[in-house]
Each structure stands twice: as C-alpha cells, then as structure tokens.
Amino acid sequence: MAGSRSFNTRRLHSLLGVIPVGLFLLEHLVVNYFATKGAASFDNAADFMGNLPFRYILEAVVIFIPLYFHAIYGLYITFTAKNNTSRYGYFRNWMYLLQRVTGVITLIYVSWHVWETRIAAAFGAEVNYQMMADILSSPFMVAFYLIGVLSAVFHFSNGLWSFFVSWGLTVSPRSQRISTYVTMGVFVALAIVSVRTIFAFI
Amino acid sequence: MSDKTIKFLITRQDTPETAPYEEEFELEYRANMNVISALMEIRRSPVNAKGEATTPVTWEMNCLEEVCGACSMVINGKPRQACTALVDKLEQPIRLAPMKTFPVVRDLAVDRSRMFDALKRVKAWIPIDGTYDLGPGPRMPETKRQWAYELSKCMTCGVCLEACPNVNSKSDFIGPAPLSQVRLFNAHPTGEMNKEERLNALMEDGGLASCGNSQNCVQSCPKGIPLTTSIAALNRATTFQAFKNFFGSDRV
C-alpha cells in the first residue's frame, strides 16, 4: 500500500485520541473526583493509582506514547489548515477551529501539568492532595488549570464526534446531528466533573 | 432611463505572476442584471469609476445556467457562480475576486486543472471497453438512479475547494468534489466492479484522510450535493477496505 501512509497515520491519530488517551482522561477525571470527598479519600485513590503494578509500562503504553503521538501529529494537522471562520461562520467550521485551538492549549497545559506533577515526583516530590492544594493556591494557576482542563474535555468530546465520522460510524446528516448533541452532553457532564474537582482543592 | 448606478469593486491581476490590485467600476442600472451581464457591460466599454480607460476584465463563462461551473468566482466574500448571482439581490458595492485556491490566470479567471487531475487520480469513470462486445451491463434500480443523480450534479466548479480550510498551499488535499465522485461511480452497478481501485486511490496521500470535517463544503455547494455524507460513507468504505488490504479477505 505505497502512498497510503498519511491515511494510516491519520486513522491512528483518530483512534489513539479515543483509545487509550480519551479513556485515560476519563479514568483520571474519575479518580481525581475523590478530592470532593476530602483529602484522605483523594490520597488513598492517588496512592492506589501510583502503586499499580507495571506502572511505568502502563504509563508509557497507555499515556505518554499515544498522547505525544496524537499531540505532535495533531500540531501538524493544525498547521496545515487555513482557518476561514470569518468568511464561513458555520457551526461546524467553528467547531473545527475550536478543536484545533483547544488541542494546542491542551498540549501546553498537559506538558506543564506533567512537569509539575510526574516529573516533580521523579525528583522526590510526593503526589498528593497537598501538592495540588499548593499549586492551586495561586489564582493564576486556578485560571490556567480551568482553561487547560476545559480545553482538554472539549477537545475529547468534540473529538469523539469527528472520531465517529472518521471511522464511518455516523454517516447521515441526522446521525451526525444527534452525535453533536450527545458529544456536547458529554462535554457539559465532564466539565461539571472537572470544575468541581478543581474547586475541591481550593 | 434611471440615474441609478451599480458599483463593482473587482480584484484584478494582469498575469499569473504580477500582484493583484483593485479597480472600481460604476455601471448604469438595468433591471434583472446578473454579474455576467455586468461584466459584459464593462467589456463593452472598459472605463473604470474614475473615468479612465482600462483593460476589459477577464473571466470565464460557458453555460450561463449554473450547470458548467466555469464562471465561479468570489462574490461579496462567498464563492459562487457569476451567472446566478443576481445584481438586485447583492449588497453594493459588489466585490468580485478570483478563487485564490486555484492559480489565477488573469483577473477573475482561474485554472481549475487540479480538479480534473484529481478526477483522473481517483478513476472517476466507468471502464466499459473490452476487446469484444461485453453486452448490456446490470440494471440500476430507478430509486437508486434518482439518488445517484444528485451526486452526478457536480460541475467541478471549485466552490467546495475554495471553502475548505484543508485545501491550501500547505496541504495536498484533493478536496471534497472528487471524493464524492468516487461515491457516485462506486454506486453504479457497472462502476461498482472497480470500486476497490477507487477506494485505494482515495487512501493515498492527499486523499480522503485529509478531510478535517469543517463541513464548509456541504454548506457552500451550489448544487446541494451531500458532500459530507459522501465523505462519511467513504470513511466507512475505506475502513473496511483498509482491513481487507491488511488482513486479506474471504471475499473477492
């Protein structure tokens, strides 16, 4: 299949965004939600996740390799587009632009977030409720986390919509419209979960 | 005779290499004009709004009834056919510009060769020639024929490529129009016999996977072709084709 490399890469990009990166995002949001039940509860959950067997392999295979492949190829996709929402202000064209903008914000946010927690942990810091409470004691970081997490959640939800189109699951206009409602429902639900979690550390 | 006038602001370009510039024209109003008849008026006496003699504006046209696609240009910001752009329905001054997605030949005339090359790339035809008479092909159900007729309305006008954010100088995307043609020819009972060739052509670089789902094409298509439905249907077909190519299949 000479010449179909970009087809395969693009499909892989679409798949990895949902499995495993999207699933990891859901797991991460669920585990973090323990923070709303108090510091001890969060520490317990973080401890469990942090001490899973094969942790480094799991992190590499489920998180870092697919995440950075998705992110770097996503940057390439973003910068080969020529956005034109000013001339064509259709709903889907705005979503197309937002998908790319939130993707770039998410990459910046996630890279910083990994640096501040996982890399810091590798240098001896302990990942627990107190660590997040310290980070979120600055109003600037609260804003940064809110923007970052909401971007990630939007990018995932709207990415689900285009995942369904890219693999040919939603073909007809009606199915794509219903899929828009469902994925935006997912966005709202995940936004509530993540915002409540962030405020649980303040 | 009324003293009403129509104003045109036209983006002009003398050669493919020179810089574009704007020129204003003012014409006497007549009822029921379209952009083509206004351009013909300018050609009849090429004088700009300042009263200076200038060169006549170049544009392409052919059928004058929105079936050939030749007179596509950007009119008040939107790509469309000049023949069906009625002056009475347009905001003034009427701005005309070439579809910059394509190489500009001169003024409003662009070179849409890339679209015809793309049709060749995806084999948008039905091979019926043999060394002997192959006889009649399979029948097409009437309901399907009516459905396929909608897809066959594509006139290669270039409007969907102009509206697509993924068709640009940084990308090799062939654009929505040739993709939808694959769906048309793969739906035909005889064309179906070569559907794998077309699907494999779509899976090459610059093909189907370069679509980013902005869906501007379906909003812009002057013939109302369900381009994004075609793209999603082909996404499904190429999903199966990719698995088949990789793993092999029990079906021929």
UniProtKB/TrEMBL annotation, chain A:
It holds the Pfam family Sdh_cyt. SUPFAM superfamilies: Fumarate reductase respiratory complex transmembrane subunits (SSF81343). It is found in: Membrane. The keyword Metal-binding applies. GO terms for cellular component: membrane. One of its GO terms (molecular function) is metal ion binding. Keywords: Heme, Iron, Membrane, Metal-binding, Transmembrane, Transmembrane helix. The chain crosses the membrane at residues 12-34, 54-76, 97-115, 135-157, 178-199. Heme binds at residues 28, 70, 113, 155. It comes from the Bacteria. This is Succinate dehydrogenase. It comes from Fictibacillus enclensis.
TrEMBL record, chain B:
Keywords: 2Fe-2S, 3Fe-4S, 4Fe-4S, Iron, Iron-sulfur, Metal-binding, Oxidoreductase, Tricarboxylic acid cycle. Its EC number is 1.3.5.1. Gene3D superfamilies: 3.10.20.30, Alpha-helical ferredoxin. Its cofactor is [4Fe-4S] cluster; [2Fe-2S] cluster; [3Fe-4S] cluster. It comes from the Bacteria. One of its GO terms (molecular function) is 3 iron, 4 sulfur cluster binding. It holds the Pfam family Fer2_3. InterPro entries: 2Fe-2S_ferredoxin-like_sf, 4Fe4S_Fe-S-bd, 4Fe4S_Fe_S_CS, Beta-grasp_dom_sf, Helical_ferredxn, SDH/FRD_Iron-Sulfur, Succ_DH/fum_Rdtase_Fe-S, Succ_DH/fum_Rdtase_N. GO terms for biological process: respiratory electron transport chain; tricarboxylic acid cycle. Residues 145-173 form the 4Fe-4S ferredoxin-type domain. Belongs to the succinate dehydrogenase/fumarate reductase iron-sulfur protein family. This is succinate dehydrogenase. The lineage of its organism: Bacteria, Bacillati, Bacillota, Bacilli, Bacillales.
